[in-house]
Design a protein that fits this description.
With 455 residues, this protein is an all-alpha fold. The chain has helices at 21-24, 36-63, 67-79, 83-109, 113-133, 137-151, 155-165, 171-200, 204-223, 236-240, 257-266, 269-299, 304-331, 336-356, 362-389, 396-424, 427-446.
């Protein structure tokens, strides 16, 4: 396999002739360097464009991914799908998204971020249009599985752009800001999909987000950019003078298939370690997002609205946690494994509190859920950033996709496993399983205590 298929030309090298659609995706070529005074003037503006574009992109991907769960009851009633049918669609989609995040992450590392993310949004919009137009269970299952794979085109190009435009000393803060986009997107999709379904039927909950994603794709194709060098600017390391501790020269060469998979992924023992840790972190993360409202209603005596507030509280507290702890990890020289482990330890007390808090103290349960959201979203975000720290900005999509794939496998396991424990034993046994997952994650993260960015 020749690495030139979608590899990036070096500065001054002539552009290769077009070899089809895949060649169109190749990383944007370097252009002639701008004068120093122009570099200093335009670099900050481009950096703002990148964080703005990445934020809008990832939030929009959530509008065309999480809309099904919002209207699943209405769609099921209209098409005579039972809960098991809907559950199977959601479970298969979680698996396909985990796989897609890895595969599409690899492709994003070898592509122009601007083109990749725009095409991804257009493709997921098309699937949403098709999903809303059909009324067959097997077509819905296939379409939403495809949507899961396409959704993997969201994280990689955004992370690639951020990695090229922000230095390693800024990663915690910048990725903390960017990761709140899924809290925003996850919150907006509930409002948009519910409003559409209540006014125009369940199908509009897929048509309207599809239209928004289409407009977003056009905007991102105009607004987003690939690397600084493609705009005639120096690398972020050269511009800021911030080089990772173990990196003496900037890594600007696009990587081959073998380098990406063998050197940076398959033989990277610490990447495997954080990937396995992410499996257990995602069990903890989604335990209360997926089951929290049901748990509060069945065990704590919450109303429908009271249970519904739990998701909002977890998401918003999680956004605050990512912002604060992301900034803190930068102050600790990028020791994100240490920050993640320290955030996991108090989760033991929070889940113990849920188990032993008496019924009728819903305010205390909500406080505990807020603390869970604040704490658990820190390792959720940090492990993605650590995959970057442990590899290269030319491998961030592949590495983050690999770690993310393990996370979504964890989500599938908790979705089936916690429901089975609660159904056949009790909710306490389900929470004991979550408690055990926290312990395992803490043990695994302890081995990452001294890890720092490598370049």
């Amino acid at each position: 396999m020749k690495d030139s298929l979608i590899s990036e030309p070096q500065p001054g090298a002539p552009s290769a002739p077009s070899k089809g659609f895949l060649q169109w995706f190749k990383p944007a070529p370097h252009t002639a360097r701008r004068p120093p005074e122009e570099v200093n003037a335009v670099y900050p503006r481009y950096r703002w464009r990148i964080i703005e574009s990445a934020y809008i992109a990832y939030a929009t991907f959530y509008l065309v991914r999480n809309n099904l769960s919002v209207v699943s009851k209405e769609m099921g009633a209209a098409l005579h799908y039972n809960k098991s049918d809907i559950g199977d669609i959601l479970a298969v989609t979680a698996i396909s998204y985990g796989i897609g995040k890895f595969l599409m992450g690899y492709l994003s590392d070898r592509s122009d971020a601007r083109k990749f993310v725009a095409v991804g949004l257009l493709a997921t919009a098309a699937v949403n249009f098709a999903f809303g137009a059909v009324a067959n269970y097997w077509l819905h299952l296939i379409l939403w599985t495809i949507n899961g794979l396409i959704q993997g085109m969201g994280y990689g190009p955004c992370a690639r752009s951020l990695g090229h435009w922000y230095s390693y000393k800024e990663r915690g803060s910048i990725f903390g800001i960017w990761n709140t986009s899924h809290n925003v997107g996850g919150g907006l999709v509930g409002i948009i999909a519910a409003f559409c379904a209540s006014h125009w039927g369940w199908r509009s909950a897929f048509f309207v987000p599809g239209i928004i994603a289409t407009v977003g794709a056009i905007y991102l194709f105009w607004r987003m950019r690939d690397t600084p060098q493609s705009e005639g600017l120096p690398s972020i390391e050269e511009f800021t003078g911030d080089y990772p501790l173990e990196e003496k020269m900037p890594h600007e060469r696009e990587l081959s298939f073998k380098e990406l998979f063998v050197h940076y992924i398959l033989t990277n023992k610490f990447l495997w370690l954080i990937a396995i840790a992410n499996f257990f972190v995602y069990i903890v993360r989604y335990s209360m997002l997926d089951w929290g409202p049901t748990y509060l209603k069945e065990v704590k005596g919450a109303t429908l609205m009271g249970g519904g507030w739990s998701t909002l509280i977890i998401e918003f507290a999680g956004g605050a946690g990512m912002l604060i702890m992301g900034w803190l990890s930068d102050r600790f020289e990028g020791r994100r494994g240490a920050v993640s482990m320290l955030c996991m330890i108090p989760l033991l007390g929070a889940f113990a509190g849920l188990i032993f808090t008496p019924k009728g103290m819903l305010w205390l349960d909500m406080c505990l859920l807020a603390s869970i959201g604040f704490l658990v979203y820190v390792p959720v975000m940090m492990l993605g950033v650590m995959s970057f720290d442990l590899t290269s900005k030319k491998a961030v999509g592949t590495a983050a996709g690999f770690v993310g794939m393990f996370g979504y496998l964890g989500r599938v396991v908790q979705g089936k496993g916690l429901g089975w424990l609660a159904e056949n034993y009790s909710w306490n046994y389900a929470l004991y399983a979550v408690f055990g997952s926290v312990v395992i994650a803490i043990v695994l993260l302890a081995f990452t205590w001294n890890l720092r960015p490598k370049g």
